[in-house]
Amino acid sequence: MPEFNYIVVGAGSAGCVLASRLSEDPNVTVALVEAGGPDTAQEVHIPVAFGALFKGPMDWDLDSEPEPGLGGQRCYLPRGKMFGGSSSMNAMIYIRGHRADYDDWASAGATGWGYDEVLPYFKRSEDNQRGGDDYHGTGGPLTVSDGRSNHSLCAAFVEAGEAAGHKRIEDFNGETMDGVGFYQLTQRDGMRCSSAVAFLHPALSRPNLTVFPHSTAVKVAIEDSRATGVWIRRAGQEDELLRATGEVIVSAGAYESPKLLMLSGIGPADVLPLFAIDVVQDLPVGQGLQDHLMTMINYLTDVESLFGAMTPENVDLLLNEHRGPLTSNVGEVGGFFRTRDGLAAPDVQLHMAPVLFYEQGLGAVQTHGFGIGPCVLKPTSRGYVTLRTPDPQSAPRIRHNYLDTEQDRATIVAAVRIAMEIAAQRPLTDVITRPFDVPDISSDAEVAAYVRRSSMTLYHPTSTCAIGSVVDPALKVYGVDGLRVVDASVMPSVVRGNTNAPTIMIAERASDLIKADARS
């Protein structure tokens, strides 16, 4: 049977980093197991086209259970099923979160994860086109750049935000986040720079890295409370055991990592026997799920939006001049806000798209418009992930419990009002022809009713294998030697912002922790 020093399950944002960093040592062997295949589709690399991947073969195409806070609505949950994982189908926004996020983790027991300790790992990954400074790095694998689309509707949003009294921010990852501005993006020459492009592709030629594409991880093999390998399933073949002489590292994401642990007997002792799974270690795996809820507000305009942008002329601009509307990440601009006095950091984020975005991103766009999406940035609600069946190819059962707390319900109502106030300022009022789908803001009850029917995930699930409950600060699973979890699921709580950059940081730091253990 094949044997490796390290087996990494999942070639997403974290897995690509780990495969690259661990295989830098030619004396170790690394296996990377990925349920999807190579990231070769043009829709992956053309920034504006990522929505075309929704519900296709490179999407896990998950759905939540009916969400009580959203009137029983099920939420569509796209997740990347290919090299790069969700970094190959996200909006490429490079946001790290707020200093307070990491300092709060550390003060609650996540030793080593304070802001000053993680900042060097953000910088190590980064090759920022603006150059290096106290907050940014250069020369790293991940290209971080200013957007090249700079759509006029997005510029109008930023100006309207300033007119509403919000400061213009040039760097949301610098000294302060509060205000409006253009996001920096994980793009290189106007194209997507996913974790696969940045980390995995350059490492694929290494003889000590073996990738197993189109391979489902069935369960982690555990002997005498030690992870010894991973059982995988490939189409048309019997299940195969890959042996690990060093460590098994689960990096399958906040939905799939807890599923794999539970299939392996690591999870709640009162749940696993219901699926005829023997309990190896009783841990609250899958509990504590957090995500950012976003409510979409849409307006029609007579300004040319991204609708109809996929023209031969724009394709030529992209491929030959690396500019034009096809470089748009859709969510080009946004901002961070506080809904009340006394907050240590923002509790609301806005994304603005120069195209209509409705019906959870699945609505058919047939005319020009734009959308503004306010979200609850630091939710207090918690959900869960659990098994649906003991079949490893079954989707997990997911409930976020969005808006489960009064604080979250009040925050999203305030967030919608912030978005509407910005939309009521020039120059946005100059380009709005009429509302497409907007709330009645005459009362909080009307806003809340709109939220229940017009909300969706912002694609940022975390915290289902959290530090302190499932893994220790070194990301080792409690009670099982040789097993770590390294992805967004280990976050004790969701960060204030988009989660791709923090996930890459987590994997960067984890690679150092793993190497240090191997040397000791």
Q: Could you say what the CATH architecture is?
A: 3-Layer(bba) Sandwich
DSSP strand count: 27
| CATH C-level category | Alpha Beta
Distance separating the two termini: 28 Å
Assign the CATH superfamily.
Answer: FAD/NAD(P)-binding domain
**Which percent bin holds the helix content?**
10-25%
On the 0 to 100 scale, the average pLDDT is: 98
Strand content: 15-25%
CATH topology: FAD/NAD(P)-binding domain
Helix count equals: 12
Based on helices, strands and strand pairing, what is the structural class?
A: alpha+beta
Q: Spans with pLDDT under 50 lasting ≥5 residues?
A: none
Q: How many domain regions? A: 1
Radius of gyration: 22 Å
Describe the main β-sheet briefly: 7 strands, mixed
Give the overall silhouette.
Answer: globular
